[in-house]
Amino acid sequence: MPLTFDDLLTRARSLVRDGHRAVLGIAGSPGAGKSTLAEQLVRALNGAGEPWVAHVPMDGFHLADAELARLGRLDRKGAPDTFDAAGYAALLRRLREEYAADGDGETVYAPGFERVLEQPLAGAIPVPPTARLVVTEGNYLLLGTGAWARVRPQLDEVWFCDLDDGERIRRLVARHEEFGKDHAAAVAWVLGTDQRNADLVAATRAHADLLVPATAVPPGSAAAG
Ligand SMILES: Nc1ncnc2c1ncn2[C@@H]1O[C@H](COP(=O)(O)OP(=O)(O)OP(=O)(O)O)[C@@H](O)[C@H]1O
Ligand SMILES: [Mg+2]
């Protein structure tokens, strides 16, 4: 039986146990559908009631352009060493540790990524004390190098968005065009900078707890980051 979206909802719910805040990671190559899957899960699990699931993207830990310029890394924005990996791991740890079963803990603020400015934005994502499950998603959750190795121990499970490269590249080019690049520039970016990062991510696929085929995910809004 192919994996369905309902199977994913059941599995995500099963991670949540008494007295503990669960953190589910979603990894995958650029454009593989991580943000869409996370948004769909959070929306379906929260339903119309009091939100108990929060979405915290790894993207908020992009270093700012000014710092990338200082480090001489602006031309490879998106590579593993252009993020604050240690800060991300520390936030995940804090999210787990500060959960209080009586809902009396404090709101934890995560940074977001502002798509128009293409810069991180502190304090953009509130995780309320009532959040029992955090869904976090990004390229490098399963990377074993440097401070990235501190991320996996903070996650209950990591799922991997499994999308064939042809379709993944087609979607990614379309999204870059949507955000203002012309076709040639979009293709050059996707096959250059993005592809080097995609290869690094693809090498971590075997470490995932679950491979999620694109067929299990209902299409999301084009606003997914
Ligand atoms: N099931 C789907 N069917 C069709 N298009 C989809 C589907 N899921 C996602 N997309 C589209 O594919 C593109 C990439 O999806 P998404 O932004 O979720 O990927 P991502 O892995 O978060 O990418 P990034 O690594 O750049 O953050 C988006 O334009 C999105 O609308
Ligand atoms: Mg995304």
TrEMBL record:
Keywords associated with the record: Kinase, Transferase
Annotated Phosphoribulokinase/uridine kinase domain residues: 23-212
Annotated protein name in UniProt: Nucleoside/nucleotide kinase family protein
Keyword field contains Transmembrane: no
Any GO molecular function: ATP binding
One Pfam entry name: PRK
Organism: Streptomyces mexicanus
